[in-house]
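The protein record filed below.
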Amino acid sequence: MSIGGRFLEVRKARGIKQTDVAEAIGISHGAVVNYEKGRDPPANVIIAFSKAFNVNPMWLLMGIGRADQSSTDDLYGRSIEIAWTYLARGGDEVAKADLVKLGSALFQYLMEHGDISEAMAEKLLSLSA
């Protein structure tokens, strides 16, 4: 699916008109039509769309992850926080290599699924440790 196809998917799912998209991101209605028909939008339009409609920019660009997930910074921070909590719970000093390994595994999971239950986090962490 093209970037414009993903624009269309978000717009239809939210019941938004093309004119509303155009107004929200500061482009013409014709540009929205062209993008939805397959013309690649410039980076500033992708960023504006992502911010205006709270859509994952990685999903918009490449179809990776979920449309509704948080920014990659948020996901990365959450993955490190979960890994740190797991590693530090015994009171021992946390090894940097272990934190990186667990944080990376969790980050990958969050990128693909958008969220993680406590039980799944525990399972991933125990497998990766």
Residues 50 and 76 are 18 Å apart (CA to CA). Residues 96-113 form the longest helix (18 residues). The two ends are 37 Å apart (CA to CA). The chain is about 70% helix and 0% strand.
